[in-house]
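Query structure, 290 tokens:
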């Protein structure tokens, strides 16, 4: 199983210097992917912007939104162009993980209807994948509606997250795989089985890529950082925020336990997300996980 690491793009106060140094260290250490998570009504750095910065200072490591909330973005065309731009800047290293999200206030501030987000998401998936296929037709012609840069030969890998029944049909219809945005190995195993069933029912060849996330918070202030950040970020979930903070891997043994459990559940990749922007966390996780 591949081991990725999240950028601290959602940890309040993260600076550009910390973000780029984090990316450089992760690239050198051998992690598979740099991930990002997404909100609007929070003092985080926007995911694709953060990945563009990481792309500029790295050579090898994959870049992924794990996940980005698509339906409250302006339009499918704008999002398709942003993703294609990161794909081009990075030399083809982008994985675009997408989902509908569950925070109503993010939709409210974006001016997008929360109740219809599922149908809007499917419309956006249809449009984005079509625009990527047709991007080699982009030109300077006044009437051209093709969206570039050209990624027709190698569009971003597309993963979809979620837990409702429609999620797995979306994966089979539009994506390259599934990502569990947060949950237990048992939840991943269940989602993997549903994804594979939908994949087979749709007549897809090969098999879907399966990824998952976990939190880590290592070092002397690991416990403190985990509770300070995660209880704030997930405050909208009430008491569940405390459980999420408690579940963060705070020592090397727990990191290795998560790796084994998600391997056994069938994950192709596990991305560990931080609770501190200190680049030292990259080195501590590399020592524990790689």
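Result returned for the query:
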């Amino acid at each position: 199983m591949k081991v990725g690491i999240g950028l601290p793009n959602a940890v309040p106060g993260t600076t550009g210097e910390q973000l780029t140094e984090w990316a450089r260290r992760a690239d050198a250490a051998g992690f598979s992917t740099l991930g990002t998570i997404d909100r609007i009504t929070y003092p985080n750095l926007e995911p694709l912007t953060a990945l563009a910065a990481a792309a500029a200072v790295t050579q090898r490591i994959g870049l992924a939104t794990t996940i980005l909330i698509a339906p409250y973005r302006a339009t499918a065309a704008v999002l398709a162009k942003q993703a294609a731009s990161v794909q081009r800047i990075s030399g083809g290293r982008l994985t675009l993980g997408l989902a509908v999200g569950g925070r109503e206030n993010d939709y409210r501030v974006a001016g997008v209807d929360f109740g219809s987000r599922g149908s809007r998401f499917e419309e956006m998936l249809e449009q984005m994948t079509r625009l990527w296929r047709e991007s080699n037709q982009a030109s300077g012609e006044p009437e051209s509606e093709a969206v570039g840069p050209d990624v027709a030969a190698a569009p971003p890998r597309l993963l979809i997250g979620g837990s409702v029944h429609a999620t797995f049909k979306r994966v089979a219809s539009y994506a390259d795989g599934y990502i569990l945005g947060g949950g237990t190995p048992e939840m991943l195993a269940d989602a993997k089985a549903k994804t594979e069933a939908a994949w087979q029912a749709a007549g897809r060849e090969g098999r879907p890529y399966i990824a998952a996330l976990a939190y880590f918070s290592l070092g002397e202030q690991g416990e403190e950082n985990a509770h300070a950040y995660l209880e704030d970020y997930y405050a909208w979930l009430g008491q569940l925020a405390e459980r999420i903070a408690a579940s963060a891997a705070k020592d090397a043994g727990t990191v290795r336990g998560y790796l084994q459990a998600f391997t056994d559940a069938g994950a192709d990749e596990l991305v560990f997300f931080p609770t501190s922007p200190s680049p030292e966390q990259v080195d501590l996780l590399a020592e524990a996980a790689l």
